Each structure stands twice: as structure tokens, then as C-alpha cells.
């Protein structure tokens, strides 16, 4: 009875220190970290920002450094140029000539959702390239 208990305890200890299980755990953690970094890259690449609420919208954004950004905000019918750093936010100018908001002002421009659907349709069926261009 004691030897059976001792063997089960030894197997549990050996399974944790087994090089195969340690490698499996390490690769699993590496995969999770890679997924997190790839999602962060995609969010940065496509400039995913929190959605607009009501009268306040981010029209354009440009990275000016590691933690600095220049943004154009639309407040109602006015647009303002602001500088954003890690410590503060500065109002740089009120724009006299408004910048067109993508997707709403340009009737011929396709929304991000439509572009994504077209890209995925082309990836799944490459022969569909010419069929979606007339939309």
C-alpha cells in the first residue's frame, strides 16, 4: 500500500520535471505571448482606437514619437489639432479647412468592413477579384 502511494507520488514529481512536459509548457507560454504581441501589432497597424461617442470624434492621428501623437479631433462642426504626450495634452490650432472624415464624407470610399470582406473573399477565392471592384 505504501509502495503504491510512493510510486504515484514519484510519478507526479517526475511528470513536472520531465523535459518533455517542461518543453510543452514553455512552448505553450511562448505561443500565448506571440498571440498577444501579434494582436497588439494588428491593433497598431490598423490604428484601432476607441469608438467615437456623440459629438467627439478622432478624425486623424499621427505618431510623432514613442509616446507622442498629433491628433485631429472633431467636436460638433469644428476640428481641432492637438498634441498628446505622456504628461499632457496641448491644443495646437483650430482648423479653418475641415478634414474629410473617412467613410462618411467620401461617398466613393469603401468602409473598413467592406475592404476586409473583399480582402477575405479574395484570399478564400482568388477568382473573385474582379467581381467586388464595382461596389
From TrEMBL:
The keyword Membrane appears for this protein: yes
Gene Ontology cellular component annotations, sorted alphabetically: bacterial-type flagellum basal body; plasma membrane
Secretion signal, residue range per the UniProt entry: none
GO biological process assignments: bacterial-type flagellum organization
Keyword terms, alphabetized: Bacterial flagellum, Cell membrane, Cell projection, Cilium, Flagellum, Membrane, Transmembrane, Transmembrane helix
Alphabetical list of NCBIfam families matching this protein: FliO_TIGR (TIGR03500)
Record-stated family: Belongs to the FliO/MopB family.
Classification via PANTHER family: FLAGELLAR PROTEIN FLIO (PTHR38766)
Protein name stated in the entry: Flagellar protein
Amino acid at each position: 500500500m505504501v509502495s503504491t502511494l510512493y510510486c504515484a507520488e514519484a510519478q507526479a514529481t517526475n511528470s513536472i520535471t520531465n523535459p518533455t512536459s517542461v518543453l510543452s509548457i514553455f512552448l505553450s507560454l511562448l505561443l500565448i505571448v506571440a498571440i498577444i504581441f501579434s494582436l497588439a501589432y494588428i491593433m497598431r497597424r490598423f490604428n484601432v482606437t476607441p469608438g467615437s461617442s456623440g459629438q467627439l470624434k478622432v478624425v486623424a492621428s499621427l505618431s510623432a514619437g514613442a509616446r507622442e501623437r498629433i491628433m485631429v479631433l472633431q467636436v460638433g462642426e469644428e476640428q481641432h489639432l492637438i498634441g498628446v504626450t505622456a504628461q499632457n495634452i496641448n491644443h495646437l490650432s483650430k482648423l479653418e479647412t475641415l478634414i474629410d472624415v473617412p467613410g462618411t464624407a467620401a461617398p466613393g470610399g469603401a468602409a473598413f468592413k467592406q475592404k476586409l470582406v473583399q480582402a477575405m473573399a479574395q484570399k478564400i477565392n482568388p477568382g473573385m477579384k474582379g467581381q467586388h471592384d464595382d461596389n
